[in-house]
Design goal:
The N and C termini lie far apart (about 50 Å). Helices cover about 5% and strands about 35% of the residues. The strands form nine sheets. A five-stranded mixed β-sheet has the order 1-30-29-28-27, with no helix packed on it. By secondary structure, it is mainly β. The protein has one domain (about 20-370): Neuraminidase (6 Propeller). It is globular, with a radius of gyration of 19 Å.
């Protein structure tokens, strides 16, 4: 068992003693206009899958897991127009903890991951043929890293976990023109459970994360900035608290919203707190709390077309952050349970697809939901 996506046993023991409901606020959150309704179910119960919007508006769901050791090479395609998931081509390897990045060409880069071994392989999905083909290998095996599409069309891979259960400070860049990965500057410290956000100036903000496990775990409040023009990282300030397994989203004004996560108590230390990174000052400032405490939601946040941010993972309620009001409010309706390592994907029509994730008992789900908070 390796990585935060795979370590179920310890959290499940804790969950026999502590109910996730204890992290939900006692009061009923104020609701905003909008709805959460069931969508069609996936063909496979998954958590930790990637979800990528294709040029057609369909969504590629790739990999994931359903319990330790049960990792998937399967994919499926969600069609919003028919509200259906159909089986897609298989990847070359089973993958959990991988990344999926839509390239400027419309193809999708799938990189790294874990399937019992840490993976160095990568492949590219071509939506015109519906098939995967191999591309260059990563410079090192890595899983639970993050990937960011840079302004020049290259893809930055950041940190994660590698061979020998090592935590990685190393980073690398994929060039679609050559199909090759090459090393770039390393972070100031190894990170897993971190975030990576492309800023309007082209730099990449890295926040939080951890290294080590259980009693040896160190969770960070630190941030750093990657400058693609020189291939180096510099310090980027300190968050108001230590955070890992949180989420981040770029706001219309160029600042970054940071939400949820937890401290080194992990399941017992979940946050409802949020903060804003000021890109001009490289400083963080606490803001109002979310309506629910939540963690393990890195891929379950979506920036809406009007600049508001939908937070869909780590709790049974879905909520919206409104930058104009600097506040969080819940959408009417809810998921069937708190969902961890689910995915939230903005569709072309402005709705958000939430898919999969595992519940408080570690069971992955085939279920999906459509969140509609569009303003009339």
């Amino acid at each position: 068992m390796t990585g935060s996506l795979k370590c179920y046993l310890w959290p499940l023991l804790l969950q026999l003693l502590f109910s996730c409901d204890s992290f939900e606020p006692d009061k009923t959150p104020t609701e905003v206009e909008g709805s959460v309704t069931p969508a069609a179910s996936m063909n496979t119960a998954r958590s930790g899958q990637t979800a990528t919007v294709l040029p057609s508006g369909q969504v590629l769901i790739a990999g994931g897991m359903n319990g330790n050791g049960n990792y998937f090479d399967t994919t499926e395609i969600y069609d919003p127009s028919s509200n259906r998931f159909v089986e897609g081509s298989k990847m070359s390897e089973r993958r959990i903890g991988h990344t999926a990045t839509r390239l400027p060409s419309g193809k999708v880069l799938i990189a790294g991951g874990f399937n019992g071994d840490y993976l160095q392989s990568a492949e590219v999905y071509d939506p015109s043929t519906g098939r995967f083909s191999p591309t260059g290998r990563l410079t090192v095996p890595r899983s639970e890293h993050l990937a960011v599409l840079l302004n020049d069309g290259r893809v930055l891979l950041v940190g994660g976990v590698g061979g020998g259960y090592s935590f990685l400070a190393s980073c690398e860049v994929f060039d679609p023109a050559t199909g090759r990965f090459s090393p770039t500057g390393s972070m100031t410290m190894p990170r897993e459970g971190h975030t990576a956000t492309l800023l309007k100036n082209g730099k990449v903000l890295i926040t939080g994360g951890h290294q080590g496990r259980r009693e040896a775990m160190t969770v960070y409040s630190s941030a750093e900035l990657y400058d693609p023009s020189i291939g180096r990282f510099t310090t980027g300030g300190e968050m108001t608290v230590v955070r890992h397994k949180h989420a981040a989203a770029l706001l219309p004004d160029g600042n970054v919203l940071i939400v949820g996560g937890s401290d080194n108590r992990d399941f017992q230390g979940q946050y409802a707190s949020a903060e804003i990174y000021d890109a001009d000052k490289s400083t963080f400032k606490a803001i109002a709390n979310m309506t629910s405490a939540r963690y393990k939601l890195t891929g379950a946040v979506a920036v809406l077309k009007d600049g508001r941010v939908l937070i869909g993972g780590g709790a049974s309620r879905v909520e919206i952050y409104d930058p104009a009001k600097n506040s969080f409010t819940a959408i009417s309706g809810e998921l069937d349970a708190a969902r961890f390592f689910s995915s939230a994907t903005l569709l072309a029509d402005g709705r958000v697809l939430i898919a999969g994730g595992y519940d408080n008992h570690g069971a992955s789900s085939v279920k999906a939901w459509l969140c509609d908070s569009r303003k009339s």
